[in-house]
Amino acid sequence: MSTPTFLGPLIGKGVGQCELVNAERGSVLASQVEPAFDSTTRKKGLLGRDSIPDDYALIIAPCSAVHTFGMRTPLDLVFVAKNGTITKTCRGVQPWRMAGSMRAHAVVEAAPGFIDRHEIVPGEMVALREIPNSQPPMEAMPIPGSTHRAEPGAAPARRTTRRRVTLADLIARKTPLAWFEAVAVVQELCETVLAREPADDLRVPELKHIVLTAEGNVTLLSEGPSGHSPVQRAGLVLLALTPEEQLPMQLRLLALEEVSPRPKLSSLKDLHRELEFFERPDRQSIVREVYERFQLQSSAAAVESAVPAPLLEPPPPKRHHRWWKGRSVWVGSMILLLGLAAAALVWAWPRPEGQWLRTNASQLTQASLDAGRKAAQAVRNEMKSAQWQLGSRPRGPEPSVLVLADSGPSGPPARQDITLEGGVPAPAVPPFELPKTPLSGAPEPVPAQAVPGVETPGPAVEPGTVFSAANSGVVPPRLIRPSSTRAPQPGTAVAALPEVELLVSASGEVESVKLVSPGQATQPGMQLSAIKAWRYEPATLGGQPVRYRLRARLPLQ
Predict the structure, then answer these.
(1) How far is CA 541 from CA 436, 479, 547, in A?
(2) What is the bridge-based pairing of β-strands 32-36 and 56-60?
(3) What are phi and psi of 435, to 5 degrees?
(4) CB-based contacts of 252: which residues, under 8 Å, 6+ apart?
(5) Which of 90, 137, 228, 355 could bridge across to 77 with cysteines, CB 3.0–4.6 Å?
(6) Around Cβ 188, how many Cβ atoms within 10 Å?
(7) The whole model's pTM is what?
(8) Is there a cis peptide before residue 62, judged by omega within 30 degrees of 0?
(9) 308 preceded by a cis bond (ω within 30 of 0)
(10) How confident is the model at residue 395 (pLDDT cuts 50, 70, 90)?
(11) Is the pLDDT score of 527 beyond 90?
């Protein structure tokens, strides 16, 4: 259902048939109003006119913005909303200018001084009012009761001019109608439509094109839209003339059933036959009484500014708003692309002073990358520290580890100082040397022959080879992160300490550990799980990490 508009009385009228009035004060603003509702008249406007009368106004609708390109005289512009409220005024707009209002539905163009002369301000309301006897009579009929015939030479009989009455006028003026009067009007409408040709394409026009005559008949000003059920549209006419709650129950059910998407009756003739049950005698007299009632209404009565709702028109199709097809979106996209192209051109344009722009940008980029790398390295260090403290490091100060049985090819291992808790040095334990006998399964090292002037690559190591102190050329692993219990008691003999055998992988982790000292207590066996958390710098052979087997003695509490 469309929104009512104040332009209803001007639809279908010409120049001079309506006047523009101030709805609040009642004063006449323009006595000659010209409509510009189609595309041709809207585009032309007041172009080509050298002067504009003071009582003239051109109403362009629907329109929310106008221009004065090519105009010969200034204009006063009044922007009006759909309900007649003035939204904006523009005084003395010169040629080659533009003006608009977002909330406007129509624009009133008038001569300069029109706004000041009538003291028009935004917020007031305007309306259109028909001028009595302003249009040529559709029919000239003698006064009822006058049946005398004019004699030769006598003055012609006086005739009265009566305006035509459409169903849209009845609804706009709120002319009271009883339900049987609405039935009589619809019956006359059905007879008029059925009398038209062709019979297989019957159409019911809109309310503004259905006219009541003084004789009590109905005439049609247009054929009406095609592709719609005449039964459904006739039912809509009945409901438009009389409110639904005023109809008898059976007539209401019939009307509602026929205005549904699937009417029960198949033809307009069947509806005409069904309405005969509710019809009263002398149908034309009833329609004539409706016509006379409308004519007797005071011409000065306030006319509703809204036209009746177009009940008979099909609803407009619902269109989904596609924002990407909007003109503003395309214009903004083009401006953005042009800006990017200009920026790229400026960026690539060579500069005599050494292309300072690209140099500064590259320095900024390099500084950002360096800062990111430093931040990432700091985060990694913190994560490693937290993982070591929470996952592997025991509570309290870091204990010392005593490694005794790792002898290299150059002699016995150097003594390692042992620090007790609290920083007190432990008593010295004399080192001892394990026999330099190769372990079972250890391969004999093959000496490499160096070629003068040529860098000799490291020896090839077969996967799974395990080295030990018996292999020459192998740098033994170095303990990095100990995880053990407390230092040995002072005066403890080295031979009394439990001995374990460790297998260190090429990555520095302890792959396996076993207790090799027989007859030891249970406590050294419980320390084997802690030994697996030790981390070594892996043994190397020619700079290549290798697996290494070593022995060590554990301190006891």
Answers:
(1) 18, 17, 10
(2) parallel
(3) -60, 140
(4) 244
(5) 90
(6) 21
(7) 0.34
(8) yes
(9) no
(10) very low
(11) no
Supply the pLDDT for residue 132. 67
**Is the pLDDT reported for residue 406 higher than 50?**
no
> How far apart are alpha carbons 17 and 36 in whole angstroms?
14
State which amino acid sits at residue 156: P
* Residue 133, Cβ density class (10 Å: 0-12 exposed, 13-18 middle, ≥19 buried): exposed
**DSSP letters spanning 419-444:** B-GGGPBPPP--------PPPTTPPP
Helix, strand, or coil (residue 218) = strand
- Please report which helix (H) or strand (E) contains residue 77, including its range: strand 75-80
DSSP 492: -
Q: Where are the domains of the chain?
A: 8-130, 165-296, 394-438+463-557
Q: What mean pLDDT comes out for the span 192-218?
A: 84
**Nearest-angstrom CA–CA distance, 85 and 105:** 10
Strands of 56-60's sheet, edge to edge? 32-36, 56-60, 106-110, 75-80, 86-93
CA distance 38 to 346: 50
**Residue 106 Cα distances to 102, 119, 496, angstroms:** 11, 19, 110
User: What does the pLDDT read at residue 557?
Assistant: 47
Is pLDDT at 116 greater than 70 in this prediction? yes
Superfamily (CATH H level) for 8-130: Protein of unknown function DUF192 (2.60.120.1140)
123 in helix, strand or coil? coil
- 177: Cβ–Cβ under 8 A, 6 or more apart, which residues? 170, 185, 241, 242, 290
Give pLDDT tens digits for 138-197. Answer: 443 333 333 334 444 444 444 444 567 888 888 888 888 889 999 999 999 999 988 876
Residues 454-510: tens digit of each pLDDT: 445 556 777 778 888 888 888 898 888 775 445 666 667 777 777 888 888 888 888
Mean pLDDT of 443-456: 51
CB 74 within 8 A of CB 46: no
Q: Is the pLDDT of residue 537 over 90?
A: no
Q: Kindly state which CATH superfamily the domain 165-296 is placed in.
A: Transferase(Phosphotransferase) domain 1 (1.10.510.10)
The single-letter code of the amino acid at 420 is L
Q: Residue 436 pLDDT more than 80?
A: no
Cβ(312)–Cβ(206) under 8 Å? Answer: yes
- Among candidate residues 47, 48, 37, 40, the one with its CA nearest the CA of residue 15: 37
- Structure tokens given for 246: 């005023």
DSSP 361-398: HHHHHHHHHHHHHHHHHHHHHHHHHHHIIIIIPPSSSP
Hunting for tokens 């192209």 — which residue is that? 341
* Tokens at 237, concatenated: 């006419």
pLDDT tens profile 308-341? 444 555 455 555 556 667 778 888 889 999 999 9
Q: Which residue has the higher pLDDT, 364 or 343?
A: 343
Q: Which residues contact 122 (CB under 8 A, 6 or more apart)?
A: 86, 87, 88, 89
Query: How many residues does the structure list for the chain?
Result: 557
Pair 32, 16: CB distance under 8 Å:
yes
